[in-house]
Amino acid sequence: MRHLHEAGSWFRACGQTNISCKNVNGKLVEVGKWPWQVSILFLGMSICSGSLIHRQWVLTAAHCLQRSKDPLSYSVKMGVQSLLENGTERQVARITIHEDFTNLSQDLALLKLRDSVSWSPLIQPVCLPNPKLKPSFGSLCWMIGWGKVAQGHANPQSPYSLQEVAVKIINNDICNQQYKFLFLTNQKKLLGNDMICATSHLGMDTCQSNSGNSLVCQMDNSWIQMGVVTWSFSCNRRHFPAVYTSTSYFTNWMRKQIGDVKIVSRAGPACLSPVLLTSSILLISSGCLWLL
Fold first, then answer.
1. Hey, where are the domains in the chain?
2. Which family does it belong to (predicted)?
């Protein structure tokens, strides 16, 4: 795919990867596979993951930001495979938490960075879905981020290395049945339309420090973020799938929050070829790239 440049910036299109190998402590490590994934730091300590959806905006889970509402307490590290690397860091300027957030629903937040990031092979935005786009049941997607993916993981370095786990999308009705024991009196369901349920074939799933990790699915050679890790009842147990906040359910909300940024508008779709933009959210509709 041809690279496009503007004022020294590097950009292909949203949801694209640029895989290469890097020597880290004498070992070849694959980098650039998930270039939108960022680590959210609180007073310099990594607490959650997030994803770049724009030069100046990061998407994450609202419950990640309960320690403080002061944006100056938070920063974002990007362009790294391991949290032990320096990478690129940006200070957070504003925190926007969904107004209807509770511990179990509407668990979404946006972080506005004080300074815009420059695109590079290791720093790229992920695509967001059109509001009508839903992952079909049985679809194979990936959970990406830092943190443990299984209890008692043999590798003590695993929380510091970017992890990826293949997961299968399952019906919310099935998920509600499996979490029925958590229902309150007269409660008919726990998972609403704003949530997605997914489980791993290998029994590996979300564990501690996974909050804010991205759920991405591939469509027409582009990666689309369909969810944000919210919660799971127990780590590494197939009978208790992980629950994600659905991004397509909140696409319009996200656009509204970032309304002060210039948005590019076109009459029709540009089918996933390299696109040159400087400050736009990228939405996927029926496999094509809509610039809204």
1. 4-126+251-276, 128-249
2. Belongs to the peptidase S1 family. CLIP subfamily.
d(Cα 160, Cα 164) in Å, to the nearest integer? 13
CA distance 110 to 61: 8
Domain 4-126+251-276: CATH class, spelled out: mainly beta
Active-site option among 49, 211, 232, 248: 211
Is residue 82 part of the annotated active site? The answer reads: no
- From the options 2.40.10.10, 3.30.1330.10, 1.20.1530.20, 3.30.360.10, give the CATH code of 128-249: 2.40.10.10
| Euclidean distance between CA atoms 290 and 33, whole angstroms | 23
**107: annotated active-site residue:** yes
- What pLDDT score was predicted for residue 184? 56
pLDDT tens per residue across span 190-246:
778 899 999 886 544 455 457 899 999 998 889 999 999 987 665 555 567 888 999
- Per annotation, catalytic residue among 63, 194, 214, 222: 63
3-state secondary structure of 264: coil
State whether residue 291 is helix, strand or coil.
Answer: strand
The predicted model scores a pTM of: 0.82
